[in-house]
Amino acid sequence: GENVEQHPSTLSVQEGDSAVIKCTYSDSASNYFPWYKQELGKRPQLIIDIRSNVGEKKDQRIAVTLNKTAKHFSLHITETQPEDSAVYFCAAKANTGFQKLVFGTGTRLLVSP
Amino acid sequence: DTAVSQTPKYLVTQMGNDKSIKCEQNLGHDTMYWYKQDSKKFLKIMFSYNNKELIINETVPNRFSPKSPDKAHLNLHINSLELGDSAVYFCASSQEAAGGHEQYFGPGTRLTVT
After folding, report:
1. How would you write chain A as a 3-class SS string?
2. What letter would DSSP give residue B83?
3. What part of B 34-53 touches A (C-beta under 8 Å)?
4. Among A68, A83, A90, residue whose Cα is nearest residue A21
5. How many CB atoms lie within 10 A of CB A6?
6. d(CA A55, CA A105)
7. Handedness of CA A80, A83, A84, A87 (dihedral sign)
8. Cα separations (Å) of A33 from A55, A81, A93?
9. Beta carbons of A98 and B50 less than 8 Å apart
10. Contacts of A45 in chain B (CB under 8 A)
11. Measured between alpha carbons, how far is residue A14 from residues A19, A84, A89, B90 in Å?
12. For A57-70, what is each residue's pLDDT tens digit?
């Protein structure tokens, strides 16, 4: 089955810096890669996703890159703000039949003013 | 007009009791899920239903029994609660038939077993 590894587990940056979170996956059939943000005490919410026919996707200050050959994908947040502080989860899913979404172990991002 | 709702939000109970958590979505989605998030924040799928049919059943003790009376509702019943069941349980839904995969999560139910 699919296995998703995520690094780092914690990341501290200064406001205005960039933050990068990396994930690797094991199942070459996976073709959908979302990123979820979970603020303290709240529900996970999708912030960006990428499908395997695209190498990069950007939405304002966040971007995701995908390298299918190496089986890894990354989240990039530029010009970080204190409100970006949260736990971020990557996930991977195959598109064949009803496959489960497998989550990484999460990265706690702390942005200091 | 909450998209995915769960009740109760908090549940404190003693070991050995039986409890239920209810979930409803008003997004018209065809697939619903139960996730468990432990104290280390790991998000692990437990069950998934598509149009009331069980399609994913992870290695979960059979004390946990999901029920989907219709495609807008997915409930979770837990028998003989144990200390290790303490966690936050999230319900989620998605529209898989149209190729969409975004999962919308409910607010979570924090279960504490004492």
Report:
1. CCCEEEECCEEEEECCCCEEEEEEECCCCEEEEEEEEECCCCCCEEEEEEECCCCEEEECCEEEEEECCCCEEEEEECCCCHHHCEEEEEEEEECCCCCCCEECCCEEEEEEC
2. G
3. 40-45, 48, 50
4. A90
5. 20
6. 23
7. positive
8. 11, 24, 7
9. yes
10. 105
11. 10, 11, 21, 32
12. 999 999 999 999 99
Measured in degrees and rounded to the nearest 5, phi and psi for residue B27 equal -95, -5
The encoded tokens of residue B20 equal 């239920």
Question: B56 touching A, CB under 8 A?
Answer: yes
**For testing contact with chain B, the best of A23, A52, A101 (most B CBs within 10 A):** A101
User: CA B95, A21, A107, A11: dihedral to nearest 10 degrees?
Assistant: -150
pLDDT tens digit string along A33-89? Answer: 999 999 999 999 999 999 888 899 999 999 999 999 999 999 999 999 999 999 999
Please write down the HEC assignment for all residues of B14-45: CCCCCEEEEEEECCCCCEEEEEEECCCCCEEE
Q: Tokens in use for A20?
A: 């990068």
Q: How far apart are CA B45 and CA A102, in angstroms?
A: 8
